[in-house]
Design goal:
single chain; alpha/beta; 7-stranded mixed sheet; 6-stranded parallel sheet; about 20% strand
């Protein structure tokens, strides 16, 4: 862009002055921000005091020799002499800037004979991680400065495979920008929102697979990041595809080097004018690559002349060890499906501990360590390398490394490059190994070889250990084959550490009303899949016969929904009116106790909007009406918006781990509070604690409305009284069934299932229940405040008194199985509605709280026995000999 295109064009030179007669602010313009000798570039290390780029030593800067080594012959000299390739810096730029950033190599590619080998990208040349990350950070800071107020609306898009880590780092420099990179890996369940071609690349097809399609749908600036900007064709292809679907007014192209010729610059300027958008270009260095006319023929001849088998490794291979990183649950492995500032914060918090695990597995005295990423997986290994370098540099890793220990970073690639072990050539050595995943676009169906360059040395000055970081999609038998990557690495180093990061798999979206449930959309997000069209119900006898005869689990089918009689419905309405204030008080008490103890704003109940750092996860379905009421209390009384989701937990099979992954991907697991309606003998309390043990980020403490069993420390009351939502099934729970877990319906990446009984809408009292209780919130504020003060000062440790009572009853009545004893009003109601009851034990003088129990007992011919000394209002006993309907702690029929 020469700047002579009229008032609608203009671009800035290396000092930021306008070279045209326009301001560059109108639509249809292209501006260029080249690197300066002074300013916020990676060379000058002018990041803030807390940024990795700050205070970088001169030898760490791009364009200088690697730390601790003398300046050597330029790593492009060999190719330049033989192929006639010349790198020329743009007028006004520091002489040799391009040579400091780039070397040259040859490759087998009919489109391009040469490869520009970056020294700061962390792909082909092992580099200090602070240089690799700091270079991208500095570019991102320049983009933030360029965009000004618009930086807060920017989205960053990086190109696979070489620029995925650079794009991440640029997004880090922008600080608030979400990030996405293109990919060549097709991911089951991920729907592409676009794709484009990279015509000169070894593998050309790119997919865009954001988990949230809205990531690209905004109208803020789109920042496109690649390692080199050579012709502009890839960028034009990208913008053409995306602008058609998501038009916007501004684009920023970021690259380490801008090597376009005059014709390509003019083409981009014309493209911007036709598009009606502003396009800025930011690069570390600008120049031109001069190629002879016969470069392809000469390059092919050189490849044929010098391509031979590598020398056999000397000595015994090193050992291979697997290291468990402790990668945070739900944290994406990179930007393939999107990476947000919240994800970045979680990664930053987890890096020191993960680096500590790697350091502990290094061989004693390791002085040179390479962290090796895998193709598109660049950013996570880069950040691990940086954290490991920091740990080893300060000597805090016991028994390994120490001050002066050096960590370098590079990445494997699918691009075939000629290795020539000569000074002045950028790719001195290469390792070849079979592909260990199945990426899209591989002409050999995922079996083409892969490469790692400059990982070993023919002079003996290699790495003491190599940390190979792969994602779980690549953790396949091919990886562990005798010719796989770890084995190839082990032939050249003393120890290989294999660290596997869980591949981020796109997760289903929560269901919301009115499409699923009769609740309003904002009341709850159901982390369930809709099985409404599947026939799951069976008559009680048939269902229980199947459980007994085949060991089937109760969660594999559903009971037929109980249809209450007119008399029973009348009891529900009477009970609701009588207990609404009592329930409201318990709702307020448990909610304010949580806000006081776990709210992010400390004293949390009055902290204003923003959720107080609490995310409610109710256990579907009995806990869900309680979760909705707690959310309403926080909003009505404190002006807080607490996110609320319903998750499935199945006795004997644990909690829905896909739901946990979803929660961890969208919220801090430490903020999640699991909510249920009431406790009985504590079976679900223990099930939850056991299920969450493999997921240490989540707090296993359960919050309940009523805790008559003394099983939890966070509750609204420990009295056993009638909660009207226990009287009915789906018709008081948003018309949603109990949850279902069956292997033919629920896959490993699916939520557990449930049904939405739309046909029962005429009988639905879910909204009535919520509204009636919420209408009493204002009148119970003062007693709630007193209750919370008393609870916060009290010893609320679980007493498990209910469990002891159940054991005593089981023994006294000769039942022999505590799972057939269901304590409390809520559990007794369930026995009467879903199981085969034997008798009901009622506390003498329990009164109106048990009217509905007495009615159900009369309808089913079950005796009600009044007893003294019962810690619950009532206890339901399942028939100990007629076990249809009786299920044990493992969810199977009790024998």
């Amino acid at each position: 862009m020469s700047g002579d295109g009229g008032s609608g064009s203009g671009y800035r030179d290396g000092h930021g002055d306008s070279a045209g007669d326009g301001s560059g602010e109108e639509h249809g313009t292209v501006t260029r921000q080249a690197a300066r000798d002074t300013g916020t570039t990676a060379e000058t290390g002018t990041g803030g005091p807390d940024e990795p780029g700050h205070g970088r030593r001169p030898e760490d800067r791009p364009g200088n020799p690697p730390a601790g080594r003398p300046e050597e012959e330029w790593s492009g000299e060999w190719v330049a002499r033989r192929l006639g390739v010349r790198l020329e810096s743009a007028p006004g730029e520091a002489d040799g800037r391009l040579r400091g950033l780039l070397g040259l190599a040859l490759r087998r590619n009919p489109r391009r004979a040469h490869l520009l080998v970056s020294r700061v990208l962390g792909k082909h040349v092992p580099q200090l991680p602070r240089v690799v990350h700091g270079t991208g950070l500095a570019l991102g800071e320049r983009v933030r400065e360029l965009l000004g107020d618009d930086a807060g609306r920017a989205v960053v898009l990086g190109y696979a495979e070489t620029a995925t880590g650079l794009g991440h780092s640029v997004a880090d420099g922008l600080r608030t920008a979400p990030y996405l990179h293109s990919t060549r890996r097709a991911v089951p369940g991920a729907v592409p929102v676009g794709g484009f071609e990279e015509e000169h690349s070894h593998a050309t097809s790119h997919l865009l697979l954001p988990e949230d399609p809205a990531l690209l749908a905004g109208n803020g600036p789109l920042v496109l990041v690649d390692d080199e900007f050579s012709t502009g064709t890839t960028v034009l292809n990208t913008i053409t595809v995306l602008h058609r679907a998501f038009p916007r007014e501004r684009y920023v192209i970021v690259a380490l080097t801008d090597l376009r010729g005059a014709a390509d610059r003019a083409r981009l300027e014309k493209f911007a004018a036709e598009l009606g958008a502003r396009i800025d270009v930011v690069a570390l260095a600008t120049g031109t690559v001069r190629l002879p006319a016969d470069v392809l023929e000469r390059g092919a001849a050189l490849v044929e002349a010098h391509d031979g088998p590598p020398p056999a490794p000397a000595g015994e291979p090193g050992e291979v060890r697997r290291v468990e990183l402790g990668w945070p649950l739900g944290l994406p492995d990179g930007g393939r499906h999107g990476f947000t500032p919240a994800h970045r914060a979680r990664l930053e918090a987890a890096l020191p501990a993960m680096a500590g695990r790697l350091a502990a597995a290094l061989p004693p005295g390791a002085r040179r360590v390479l962290v090796l990423g895998c193709e598109e997986l660049m950013y996570a290994p880069l950040r691990l390398a940086g954290a490991l370098a920091d740990l080893l540099a300060d000597g805090s890793a016991d028994g390994t490394g120490g001050p002066g220990a050096e960590v370098r970073f590079s990445t494997t690639t699918r691009s075939p490059v000629l290795a020539v072990d000569e000074p002045g050539y950028a790719i001195r050595t290469r390792l070849v190994f079979p592909a260990h995943d199945d990426p899209a676009g591989d002409p050999a169906g995922g079996t083409s070889p892969r490469y790692a360059y400059n990982v070993h040395s023919t002079t003996g000055a290699g790495f003491d250990a190599v940390v190979a970081v792969v994602d779980s999609a690549g953790d396949t038998p091919a990886l562990h084959a005798p010719d796989g990557l770890p084995a190839r690495l082990a032939a050249h180093t003393g120890r290989v550490l294999l660290a596997v990061i869980p591949s981020h798999r796109p997760l289903p979206a929560p269901l919301r009303g009115p499409a699923f449930s009769s609740y309003a959309p904002g009341e709850v997000g159901w982390l369930l899949q809709d099985l409404s069209e599947v026939t799951l119900e069976a008559p009680t006898e048939e269902r229980e016969e199947a459980i007994q005869s085949g060991g089937a689990h109760y969660a594999e089918s559903l009971p037929v929904e109980y249809q209450p009689s007119e008399a029973y419905q009348k009891l529900f309405h009477q009970a609701l009116e009588a207990s609404a204030a009592r329930i409201a008080r318990a709702v307020g008490t448990v909610t304010d106790t949580l806000l006081a103890e776990r709210g992010r704003h400390g004293g949390g109940a009055g902290g204003g909007g923003g959720g107080g750092g609490i995310v409610l996860a109710s256990l579907a379905r009995a806990g869900t009406p309680v979760g909705v009421l707690m959310r309403r209390w926080a909003r009505q009384v404190h002006g807080l918006e607490l996110p609320h989701y319903a998750v499935s937990i199945v006795r004997g099979r644990g909690i829905d781990t896909t739901a946990l992954r979803w929660l961890a991907a969208h919220h801090d697991p430490a903020d999640v509070v699991f909510v249920d309606g009431w406790t009985g003998k504590g079976a679900i309390t223990r099930e939850l604690a056991d299920a969450l043990r493999p997921f240490p980020g989540f707090d296993p403490e359960l919050a309940v409305l009523a805790d008559p069993g003394g099983c939890v420390r966070t509750y609204g009351t420990r009295e056993d009284f009638l909660i009207p939502s226990a009287c009915l099934n789906s018709t008081v729970s948003g018309l949603v069934s109990r949850t279902v877990l069956r292997a033919d319906l629920v896959g490993p990446d699916d939520f557990h299932g449930a049904k939405f009984y739309r046909e029962l809408a005429a009988s639905d009292v879910s909204g009535l229940f919520l509204d009636t209780v919420a209408a009493r919130f204002d009148e119970v504020r003062e007693p709630v405040a007193a209750d919370v003060r008393a609870l916060l000062a009290a010893d609320r440790a679980p007493t498990w008194a209910g469990r002891r009572a159940v054991e005593r009853i089981s023994e006294e009545y000769g039942i022999g199985d505590v799972n057939l004893v269901k304590p409390g009003v809520g559990e007794t109601t369930r026995v009467m509605l879903r199981r085969v009851p034997w008798r009901v034990l009622a506390r003498r003088g329990a009164g109106a709280d048990l009217d509905h129990i007495r009615l159900l007992a009369e309808q089913r011919g079950v005796p009600v026995e009044e007893v003294d000394g019962l810690p619950y209002s009532c206890v339901g006993l399942i028939h100990p000999r007629y076990t249809r309907g009786a299920t044990g702690a493992d969810g199977k029929a009790a024998r």
